Each structure stands twice: as C-alpha cells, then as structure tokens.
TrEMBL record:
Superkingdom as given in the UniProt entry: Bacteria
Pfam families listed in its UniProt record: Glyoxalase
Domain VOC: 7-132, 154-272
Name the UniProt record assigns to this protein: Glyoxalase family protein
InterPro entries per UniProt: Extradiol_RC_dioxygenase (IPR052537), Glyas_Bleomycin-R_OHBP_Dase (IPR029068), Glyas_Fos-R_dOase_dom (IPR004360), VOC_core (IPR037523)
Gene3D superfamilies assigned to the protein according to its UniProt record, in alphabetical order: 2,3-Dihydroxybiphenyl 1,2-Dioxygenase, domain 1
Signal peptide positions (record): none
Length: 321
C-alpha cells in the first residue's frame, strides 16, 4: 500500500465503575481527562478519554465504563498489554508510587534495552510503564497530580497476542509498519521513525485460549492518519486488498474506520484532526459532558442515566466553578 501510519493514535478498553476508572487514570497515573462524552452507539455509558494536556494523538487511552460489567479474559485475538512511556530515571519512582497506591507491581525487567514495569488497572487491564533508552521528547501533562519529571509521555506500544504471526505481519506491512526485532516468540514492528508511540509487539501464543473482550480488556487499537483524505485513500486500498472495512465514521474529535487484523484484534485508523478543543477550551477539557449534535435532543435523558464524576481540581487549571 502507498500509505504508512506514523504511530499509535489511541487504545480503547472496557472498564467497570466509571469513578474508579477516573480515580486510577487521573490520580494514580496522573493523566488528564480530556473529553467526557458517551459511547455514540450506546449513549447510556460514558466514553472517557485520558491523555496529555490537549489529548494529542499518541497520548490517549480511552474507556467505555459499564458499572457491573463482567470481567474479560486475556488471550489470543486481542491486545493484551498497553505500555505507556516514562522517563528512564523514573521507573524506580513509579514502582514506589504504585505500591503506595496499593497497586501490585512486578519486578522491573529489561528487554531490548528498555526497562519495563508491569501491573494492572483496577479492572485487570494489562499495563506497563516503559523507559526507552533514547528518551521520549513528548511533554507530559504538567499540571497533573504526578510530578512532571516523572509524568507519562504517552503511549509506548501495544502487545497483540496471536496464534500465528504470519498473516498479522503481512497486514502490518500494508499499514506501513516495519519488522524491527524478534525475541523468542515476540516480534516487534515499528511505524515511521520508530520510538515510543510507534511500536507494536506481536506475541505468538498458540496454546493460549481465545480472549474475551469485556471489563479489563482492550476493545480496539487505533493508528494515526494525518487527515481525512489520507484516511479515505487508505480505506479504498484496504478494501481493494480484501479487508472488510467500515464506512468512515464521525467521532467528533477524529474520523474513524475499523477492521480486524488476521489474528483477531480490532484495529482503527483515526485522523489527527480536528482534536479535542473542537468544542471546549483547552483549560476546560473533560469538565462538561459533550454530546454529538444527533444526541443533543436527548441530553436530559442521557444526563440522568450517567453517574456523576468527581474530578480532581488539577484536571482543569484556571477554570472557574
């Protein structure tokens, strides 16, 4: 194909209780809630977006939180670990910080020169904090609860679990991802110039059962497209190669197409624009419930269905009450 992604756009997962989810990602991990909206296909539940100050592509983790949702199962056919990028000197700080917050953490391990710390969020979602030896030039959310010098810089990588890597690797080639390294049954691919935010690892686990997407599991992984024209061309190329792709969908803050890679993981290509300041000022991001125009007539009904969220003051610096 003629088009190549520059890296990850976001990762979307399923969660349980929305307040517990917000407390963990805002207060424990120190991210910013950059958009409070709803699942456009099921407006009775939130769609919460966490990221850096402006919710830039590559910094985003998003969640559909259903209180009381059954637990998922990690396995093949899904993304099983989402890794976030932190400074190399901060891994020790994070190990102590997470332990102090009651989070069970593993030992720091090193793979291909990168130190990594693995743990789970309150719903069991597999997470890792990874320090790239060449650093990460992206700026953290510097008004958050976590000190900026230790702050998360954005997504580092995702790990997809598959029974066989061959067909998945072939599709990645069509997305502009390049094979970078192999470590046993783990294959690393990179987008663009590589580095944090541009990695995907494919873990071959033929004896592991199929995963189940529910609370604590990734719903889909999104890759970046710079604009709608590029996305439309990419869609036509995917269709031409026999991939079953959705129509282009309006997600208000980006446009999306969805398809599955051969191993089973749902993938998305999302545009960089228009971004999260399209409908509220930078300092007030995430503060108010935002709905697309077609759901505005049902605002009162939707608002009654959604539980209220308590956000830390740091989420909206300078915003008046």
């Amino acid at each position: 194909m003629s088009i190549a992604t520059s890296g990850l756009h976001h990762v979307t997962a399923i969660a349980g209780d929305p307040q517990r989810n917000a407390d963990f990602y805002l207060r424990t991990l120190g991210l910013r809630l950059v958009k409070t909206t709803v699942n456009f296909d099921d407006p009775g539940t939130y769609h919460l977006y966490y990221g850096d100050e402006a919710g830039r592509p590559g910094s985003l983790m998003t969640f559909f939180p259903w209180k009381g949702a059954p637990s998922g199962r990690h396995g093949t056919g899904q993304a099983t670990t989402t890794a976030l990028s932190v400074p190399e000197a901060s891994i020790g700080w994070w190990k102590q910080h997470l332990a102090a917050q009651g989070v069970e953490v593993g030992q720091v391990h090193n793979r291909d020169g990168e130190d990594a710390l693995t743990f789970q969020d309150p719903d069991g979602l597999g997470l890792a904090l990874v320090a790239h030896p060449q650093g990460d030039p992206r700026a953290p959310w510097d008004d958050g609860i976590v000190p900026a010098e230790h702050g998360i810089r954005g997504l580092h990588s995702v790990t997809l679990s598959v029974t066989d890597e061959t067909a998945t690797a072939a599709m990645f080639d069509g997305l502009g991802l390049s094979f970078a390294a192999q470590d046993g049954n783990r294959f690393r691919f990179t987008a663009g110039e590589g580095g944090p935010g541009a990695f995907v690892d494919v873990l071959v686990t033929p004896d592991v059962p199929q995963g189940l997407v529910a609370a604590g599991a990734v719903h889909h992984v999104a890759w970046r497209a710079p604009d709608e024209a590029t996305q439309a061309t990419w869609r036509e190329e995917l269709l031409g190669s026999g991939v079953d792709v959705t129509s282009i969908l309006d997600r208000q803050y980006f446009r999306s197409i969805y398809f599955r890679e051969p191993g089973g993981t749902l993938l998305e290509i999302a545009t960089d624009e228009p971004g999260f300041t399209a409908d509220e000022p930078l300092l007030e991001l995430g503060r108010a419930l935002k709905l697309p125009p077609w759901l505005e007539p049902k605002r009162d009904e939707i608002d009654r269905m959604l539980p209220k969220l308590n956000l830390p003051a740091e989420n909206n610096p300078g915003a008046t009450a």
